[in-house]
Write a structure and sequence with these properties.
alpha/beta, 2 domains, about 250 residues, OB fold (Dihydrolipoamide Acetyltransferase, E2P), single chain, 8 helices
């Protein structure tokens, strides 16, 4: 079984490596120090199992697990943690295994024996209620792409795909605008049935040649149309922040 070790502490990774090397049938294919690096390593070496720390700077283990589950061949995941807090109750309730640090050899062997893939329903239960993803994950020509939410200028829907646009880059994802709005509504504003824009990226409102209201966005050249129905709410959200149309 090919295994990826993910932990932001070098000593913790070394401890896991030593324990795994004592077990038969385990091949350590890579190590990573945070969630973003874990996804890159997983895309490169296609592990069958990921030992995933929960609390890490940047992208934590919960978000990384959601992205791992979206891979074409998602690995089994076993969480590791130094904190015996309420999160462990959620893991147990969803039959997701975890290892409490310091990890003992017998417990590790048990976890590996019953490691299994996380279902989408389990991942929804594990998603922190007050949080949200820090990155959007997409695949382009077989390569895993990560875009930080803070770099996203807008989401635009087209049929079953959504285009994620950042300054100088675009990727396609198979998510709905509705779900993205629910998750990131504090940072993004619905301006049209087919578009969400980052509030922080809006530099102004103006009329195009046909008299339609449009938002001017930092990082992309074209302006995006605001629907008549959305315009009052857009004006309300942006009042006092940007130059407005008359």
């Amino acid at each position: 079984m090919k295994c990826l070790i993910v932990d932001d502490e070098p000593l913790a990774r070394e401890r896991l490596r030593q324990l795994l090397e004592q077990l038969d049938g385990i091949e350590i294919c890579a190590e990573a120090a945070d969630g973003c690096e874990a996804l890159q390593r997983a895309a490169a070496c296609a592990p069958e199992l990921v030992l995933l720390d929960i609390r890490m700077p940047g992208m934590d283990g919960l978000e990384a697990a959601r992205h791992l589950a979206g891979m074409a061949r998602p690995p089994a995941v076993v969480f590791t943690t130094a904190y015996g807090d309420h999160a462990l109750q959620a893991f147990e309730a969803q039959a997701v295994d975890y290892l409490l640090k310091p990890i003992h050899p017998e417990r590790l062997a048990q976890a590996l024996a019953k490691a299994r893939q996380l279902s989408q329903a389990q991942l929804r239960e594990l998603q922190p209620a007050a949080g949200g993803r820090t990155h959007i994950c997409a695949s382009r020509r077989g390569e895993l792409r990560l875009i930080a939410i803070e770099d996203v200028v807008c989401f635009q829907a087209d049929n079953k795909y959504v285009t994620v646009r950042s300054a100088g880059d675009e990727v396609l994802i198979e998510e709905s605008l509705k779900s993205l709005e629910q998750e990131f509504g504090a940072r993004f504003l619905r301006i049209h049935r087919n578009a969400l824009v980052a509030v922080a990226a809006i530099r102004g409102l103006r009329k195009d040649a046909d008299g339609h209201a449009c938002v001017v966005l930092e990082g992309i050249d074209d302006c995006l149309e605001v629907s008549r129905r959305m315009l009052p709410e857009v004006r309300r959200r942006l009042k006092g922040r940007v130059a407005a149309i008359s």
